[in-house]
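Lab notebook, bench 4. The sequencing result for the construct came back, and we need a structural model before the next group meeting so we can plan mutations. Quick request posted to the team channel:

Model the 3D structure of this chain.
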Amino acid sequence: MPTKARNHNGYLLRWDGHGVLFDPGEGTQRQMTRAGVAANDVTWICVTHFHGDHCLGVPGVVQRIARDGVEHPVDAAFPASGHEYWRRLRHAAVFRDTGVIRERPVSGERMVLDTGDAPFTLVARRLSHPVEAYGYRLEEPGGRTMLPAELAARGVRGPLVRRLQEEGRVTAPDGRTVTLEECSVARPGQKAAFVMDTRLCDGVRELADGVDMLVIESTFLHEDAALATEYGHLTSAQAAAVAAEAGVRHLVLTHFSERYRVEDEHRFLDEASAVFGGEITLVHDLDRIPLPPRRLTGRERGQESVHG
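Done. Here's the predicted structure in C-alpha coordinate form:
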Protein backbone atom coordinates (compact mmCIF):
# COMPACT_ATOMS: atom_id res chain seq x y z
CA MET A 1 0.00 0.00 0.00
CA PRO A 2 1.16 3.56 -0.58
CA THR A 3 2.22 5.45 2.55
CA LYS A 4 2.88 9.10 3.39
CA ALA A 5 6.51 8.52 2.45
CA ARG A 6 6.16 6.17 -0.51
CA ASN A 7 4.11 5.92 -3.69
CA HIS A 8 2.92 2.71 -5.31
CA ASN A 9 5.32 0.82 -7.61
CA GLY A 10 6.55 2.33 -10.87
CA TYR A 11 10.08 1.85 -12.27
CA LEU A 12 11.51 3.25 -15.49
CA LEU A 13 14.62 1.69 -16.99
CA ARG A 14 16.30 3.90 -19.58
CA TRP A 15 18.22 1.78 -22.07
CA ASP A 16 19.84 3.22 -25.22
CA GLY A 17 16.95 5.42 -26.23
CA HIS A 18 14.24 3.12 -24.91
CA GLY A 19 12.20 3.54 -21.75
CA VAL A 20 10.93 0.34 -20.14
CA LEU A 21 8.23 1.10 -17.56
CA PHE A 22 7.75 -1.71 -15.05
CA ASP A 23 4.64 -2.17 -12.90
CA PRO A 24 2.98 1.26 -13.07
CA GLY A 25 0.97 1.40 -9.86
CA GLU A 26 -1.47 4.08 -8.78
CA GLY A 27 0.00 7.56 -9.11
CA THR A 28 2.68 6.65 -11.68
CA GLN A 29 1.57 9.30 -14.17
CA ARG A 30 2.12 12.04 -11.59
CA GLN A 31 5.43 10.56 -10.44
CA MET A 32 6.61 10.57 -14.07
CA THR A 33 5.85 14.29 -14.22
CA ARG A 34 7.77 14.91 -11.00
CA ALA A 35 10.71 12.92 -12.36
CA GLY A 36 10.77 14.74 -15.70
CA VAL A 37 9.71 11.64 -17.62
CA ALA A 38 7.47 12.27 -20.62
CA ALA A 39 5.01 9.85 -22.18
CA ASN A 40 7.23 9.94 -25.27
CA ASP A 41 10.04 8.39 -23.21
CA VAL A 42 8.10 5.14 -22.74
CA THR A 43 8.57 2.40 -25.35
CA TRP A 44 7.64 -0.65 -23.22
CA ILE A 45 5.21 -1.27 -20.37
CA CYS A 46 5.95 -4.50 -18.49
CA VAL A 47 3.44 -5.71 -15.90
CA THR A 48 4.56 -8.54 -13.64
CA HIS A 49 1.07 -9.42 -12.35
CA PHE A 50 -2.34 -7.92 -11.75
CA HIS A 51 -2.33 -7.07 -8.08
CA GLY A 52 -3.35 -3.42 -7.80
CA ASP A 53 -0.07 -1.97 -6.57
CA HIS A 54 1.57 -3.20 -9.77
CA CYS A 55 -0.99 -2.13 -12.36
CA LEU A 56 -3.50 0.50 -11.18
CA GLY A 57 -1.44 3.20 -12.90
CA VAL A 58 -1.90 1.65 -16.34
CA PRO A 59 -5.02 3.71 -17.22
CA GLY A 60 -3.32 7.03 -16.52
CA VAL A 61 -0.14 6.10 -18.37
CA VAL A 62 -2.01 4.82 -21.43
CA GLN A 63 -4.30 7.84 -21.53
CA ARG A 64 -1.30 10.16 -21.19
CA ILE A 65 0.35 8.38 -24.13
CA ALA A 66 -2.82 9.01 -26.11
CA ARG A 67 -3.27 12.63 -25.01
CA ASP A 68 0.36 13.55 -25.74
CA GLY A 69 0.15 12.07 -29.22
CA VAL A 70 2.95 9.53 -28.85
CA GLU A 71 3.62 8.22 -32.35
CA HIS A 72 6.07 5.38 -31.77
CA PRO A 73 4.84 1.89 -30.81
CA VAL A 74 4.57 1.15 -27.10
CA ASP A 75 4.75 -2.58 -26.41
CA ALA A 76 2.84 -3.88 -23.40
CA ALA A 77 3.91 -7.17 -21.81
CA PHE A 78 1.67 -8.77 -19.19
CA PRO A 79 0.58 -12.27 -18.06
CA ALA A 80 -1.76 -13.67 -20.69
CA SER A 81 -3.90 -15.23 -17.97
CA GLY A 82 -4.78 -11.70 -16.82
CA HIS A 83 -5.84 -10.42 -20.22
CA GLU A 84 -9.30 -9.48 -18.93
CA TYR A 85 -7.70 -7.29 -16.23
CA TRP A 86 -5.46 -5.69 -18.85
CA ARG A 87 -8.49 -4.97 -21.04
CA ARG A 88 -10.31 -3.29 -18.14
CA LEU A 89 -7.28 -1.18 -17.25
CA ARG A 90 -6.54 -0.31 -20.85
CA HIS A 91 -10.09 1.04 -21.31
CA ALA A 92 -10.88 2.12 -17.75
CA ALA A 93 -12.32 5.54 -18.66
CA VAL A 94 -13.56 7.57 -21.59
CA PHE A 95 -10.71 9.04 -23.63
CA ARG A 96 -9.60 9.50 -27.20
CA ASP A 97 -7.82 6.20 -27.75
CA THR A 98 -4.46 5.52 -29.36
CA GLY A 99 -3.36 2.80 -31.72
CA VAL A 100 0.30 2.70 -30.65
CA ILE A 101 -0.15 0.20 -27.80
CA ARG A 102 0.89 -3.27 -28.96
CA GLU A 103 -0.07 -6.12 -26.67
CA ARG A 104 2.58 -8.74 -25.86
CA PRO A 105 0.85 -11.31 -23.60
CA VAL A 106 3.24 -13.61 -21.77
CA SER A 107 2.62 -17.30 -21.08
CA GLY A 108 4.45 -20.53 -20.22
CA GLU A 109 7.39 -21.00 -17.88
CA ARG A 110 9.72 -18.85 -19.96
CA MET A 111 9.12 -16.62 -22.94
CA VAL A 112 11.41 -14.56 -25.14
CA LEU A 113 9.57 -11.48 -26.36
CA ASP A 114 10.01 -10.04 -29.81
CA THR A 115 11.80 -6.72 -29.30
CA GLY A 116 12.26 -5.95 -32.99
CA ASP A 117 15.21 -3.62 -33.55
CA ALA A 118 15.53 -2.68 -29.86
CA PRO A 119 19.12 -2.95 -28.57
CA PHE A 120 18.23 -5.67 -26.05
CA THR A 121 16.54 -9.01 -25.65
CA LEU A 122 13.66 -9.32 -23.19
CA VAL A 123 12.89 -12.55 -21.38
CA ALA A 124 9.89 -13.17 -19.12
CA ARG A 125 10.14 -15.96 -16.52
CA ARG A 126 7.32 -17.28 -14.36
CA LEU A 127 7.68 -16.73 -10.62
CA SER A 128 5.94 -18.10 -7.50
CA HIS A 129 3.09 -15.89 -6.24
CA PRO A 130 -0.56 -16.52 -5.34
CA VAL A 131 -1.52 -15.12 -8.76
CA GLU A 132 0.41 -15.78 -11.95
CA ALA A 133 3.43 -13.48 -12.01
CA TYR A 134 6.48 -13.00 -14.21
CA GLY A 135 9.85 -11.37 -13.81
CA TYR A 136 11.75 -9.75 -16.68
CA ARG A 137 15.38 -9.77 -17.80
CA LEU A 138 16.94 -7.39 -20.35
CA GLU A 139 20.25 -8.14 -21.98
CA GLU A 140 22.17 -6.44 -24.76
CA PRO A 141 24.00 -8.65 -27.27
CA GLY A 142 27.65 -9.31 -26.60
CA GLY A 143 30.28 -7.78 -28.81
CA ARG A 144 34.02 -7.35 -29.06
CA THR A 145 36.32 -4.62 -27.78
CA MET A 146 39.26 -3.76 -30.04
CA LEU A 147 42.71 -3.57 -28.42
CA PRO A 148 44.68 -0.59 -29.80
CA ALA A 149 48.10 -1.95 -28.79
CA GLU A 150 47.50 -5.27 -30.55
CA LEU A 151 46.27 -3.49 -33.69
CA ALA A 152 49.30 -1.19 -33.71
CA ALA A 153 51.70 -4.08 -33.20
CA ARG A 154 50.34 -5.71 -36.36
CA GLY A 155 50.15 -2.52 -38.42
CA VAL A 156 46.36 -2.64 -38.66
CA ARG A 157 44.92 0.87 -38.82
CA GLY A 158 42.34 3.01 -40.61
CA PRO A 159 39.97 1.16 -42.98
CA LEU A 160 41.67 -2.15 -42.14
CA VAL A 161 40.22 -2.01 -38.62
CA ARG A 162 36.66 -1.81 -39.99
CA ARG A 163 37.33 -4.69 -42.38
CA LEU A 164 38.75 -6.74 -39.52
CA GLN A 165 35.61 -6.13 -37.49
CA GLU A 166 33.32 -7.01 -40.37
CA GLU A 167 35.19 -9.93 -41.94
CA GLY A 168 37.09 -11.41 -38.98
CA ARG A 169 40.50 -11.31 -40.69
CA VAL A 170 42.58 -9.01 -42.88
CA THR A 171 45.98 -8.97 -44.58
CA ALA A 172 48.31 -6.51 -42.82
CA PRO A 173 50.70 -4.22 -44.78
CA ASP A 174 53.57 -6.66 -44.16
CA GLY A 175 51.56 -9.52 -45.69
CA ARG A 176 50.60 -11.25 -42.43
CA THR A 177 47.07 -12.48 -41.85
CA VAL A 178 45.61 -10.86 -38.75
CA THR A 179 42.52 -12.30 -37.06
CA LEU A 180 39.90 -10.54 -34.99
CA GLU A 181 40.64 -12.79 -32.01
CA GLU A 182 44.25 -11.55 -31.93
CA CYS A 183 43.24 -7.90 -31.66
CA SER A 184 40.10 -7.93 -29.57
CA VAL A 185 38.39 -9.47 -26.56
CA ALA A 186 34.82 -10.62 -26.09
CA ARG A 187 32.63 -7.96 -24.46
CA PRO A 188 29.61 -9.33 -22.59
CA GLY A 189 26.45 -7.31 -22.98
CA GLN A 190 25.03 -5.46 -20.00
CA LYS A 191 22.15 -7.13 -18.19
CA ALA A 192 19.39 -6.03 -15.85
CA ALA A 193 16.61 -7.98 -14.14
CA PHE A 194 13.35 -6.92 -12.55
CA VAL A 195 11.86 -9.32 -10.00
CA MET A 196 8.70 -8.43 -8.10
CA ASP A 197 6.32 -10.42 -5.91
CA THR A 198 7.55 -13.99 -5.55
CA ARG A 199 8.81 -16.66 -3.23
CA LEU A 200 12.26 -18.12 -3.79
CA CYS A 201 12.11 -20.24 -6.95
CA ASP A 202 14.16 -21.26 -9.99
CA GLY A 203 12.74 -18.33 -11.95
CA VAL A 204 14.25 -15.79 -9.57
CA ARG A 205 17.67 -17.39 -9.86
CA GLU A 206 17.53 -17.60 -13.65
CA LEU A 207 16.55 -13.96 -14.02
CA ALA A 208 19.25 -12.77 -11.62
CA ASP A 209 22.11 -14.85 -13.04
CA GLY A 210 25.09 -12.58 -13.74
CA VAL A 211 23.14 -9.34 -14.13
CA ASP A 212 24.74 -5.94 -13.64
CA MET A 213 21.67 -4.67 -11.79
CA LEU A 214 18.97 -6.62 -9.99
CA VAL A 215 15.85 -4.70 -8.96
CA ILE A 216 14.07 -7.05 -6.58
CA GLU A 217 11.32 -6.99 -4.00
CA SER A 218 12.27 -7.06 -0.34
CA THR A 219 8.85 -7.01 1.29
CA PHE A 220 9.71 -8.51 4.69
CA LEU A 221 12.50 -8.65 7.22
CA HIS A 222 13.92 -12.03 8.22
CA GLU A 223 11.88 -12.10 11.43
CA ASP A 224 8.76 -12.32 9.24
CA ALA A 225 10.07 -15.00 6.86
CA ALA A 226 7.04 -17.21 7.54
CA LEU A 227 4.73 -14.42 6.38
CA ALA A 228 6.88 -13.91 3.29
CA THR A 229 6.44 -17.55 2.31
CA GLU A 230 2.72 -17.50 3.07
CA TYR A 231 2.02 -14.41 0.98
CA GLY A 232 4.47 -15.19 -1.82
CA HIS A 233 7.20 -12.65 -1.11
CA LEU A 234 10.91 -12.37 -0.31
CA THR A 235 12.81 -11.11 2.70
CA SER A 236 15.76 -8.74 2.30
CA ALA A 237 18.11 -11.55 3.34
CA GLN A 238 16.64 -13.88 0.70
CA ALA A 239 16.95 -11.24 -2.00
CA ALA A 240 20.57 -10.63 -1.01
CA ALA A 241 21.33 -14.36 -1.01
CA VAL A 242 20.01 -14.60 -4.56
CA ALA A 243 22.23 -11.69 -5.59
CA ALA A 244 25.31 -13.24 -3.97
CA GLU A 245 24.73 -16.64 -5.56
CA ALA A 246 24.01 -15.11 -8.99
CA GLY A 247 27.04 -12.79 -9.08
CA VAL A 248 24.96 -9.60 -9.26
CA ARG A 249 26.93 -6.36 -9.31
CA HIS A 250 24.36 -3.90 -7.94
CA LEU A 251 21.44 -5.01 -5.78
CA VAL A 252 18.44 -2.68 -5.67
CA LEU A 253 15.90 -3.45 -2.93
CA THR A 254 12.32 -2.19 -3.11
CA HIS A 255 8.67 -3.06 -2.31
CA PHE A 256 8.83 -2.79 1.49
CA SER A 257 5.75 -3.73 3.50
CA GLU A 258 3.86 -0.84 5.07
CA ARG A 259 4.01 -2.70 8.40
CA TYR A 260 7.55 -1.33 8.87
CA ARG A 261 8.28 2.24 9.87
CA VAL A 262 10.60 4.58 7.99
CA GLU A 263 13.11 4.26 10.82
CA ASP A 264 13.22 0.48 10.18
CA GLU A 265 14.75 0.97 6.73
CA HIS A 266 18.31 0.43 7.95
CA ARG A 267 17.33 -3.07 9.06
CA PHE A 268 16.68 -4.10 5.45
CA LEU A 269 20.12 -2.83 4.50
CA ASP A 270 21.74 -4.48 7.52
CA GLU A 271 20.22 -7.86 6.72
CA ALA A 272 21.14 -7.67 3.04
CA SER A 273 24.70 -6.48 3.73
CA ALA A 274 25.32 -9.46 5.98
CA VAL A 275 24.72 -11.75 2.99
CA PHE A 276 25.77 -9.74 -0.09
CA GLY A 277 29.07 -7.89 -0.30
CA GLY A 278 28.36 -5.87 -3.44
CA GLU A 279 26.71 -2.50 -3.87
CA ILE A 280 23.20 -2.23 -2.39
CA THR A 281 20.62 0.51 -2.81
CA LEU A 282 17.36 0.83 -0.90
CA VAL A 283 15.20 2.85 -3.24
CA HIS A 284 13.11 5.89 -2.39
CA ASP A 285 10.64 7.68 -4.62
CA LEU A 286 12.25 9.45 -7.59
CA ASP A 287 15.70 7.90 -6.99
CA ARG A 288 17.91 7.61 -10.09
CA ILE A 289 20.35 4.71 -10.09
CA PRO A 290 22.96 4.32 -12.85
CA LEU A 291 23.61 0.91 -14.33
CA PRO A 292 27.16 -0.19 -13.46
CA PRO A 293 29.68 0.45 -16.27
CA ARG A 294 30.67 -2.47 -18.44
CA ARG A 295 33.19 -4.87 -16.95
CA LEU A 296 36.78 -4.70 -18.21
CA THR A 297 38.49 -7.96 -19.10
CA GLY A 298 42.05 -8.65 -18.00
CA ARG A 299 43.40 -7.79 -21.45
CA GLU A 300 41.41 -4.55 -21.53
CA ARG A 301 42.83 -3.52 -18.16
CA GLY A 302 46.31 -4.20 -19.49
CA GLN A 303 45.65 -2.02 -22.53
CA GLU A 304 44.30 0.69 -20.26
CA SER A 305 47.47 0.74 -18.18
CA VAL A 306 49.68 0.78 -21.29
CA HIS A 307 47.87 3.80 -22.71
CA GLY A 308 47.73 5.66 -19.38
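The domain at 11-142+188-282 is CATH 3.60.15.10 (Metallo-beta-lactamase; Chain A).
Will bring this to the meeting.
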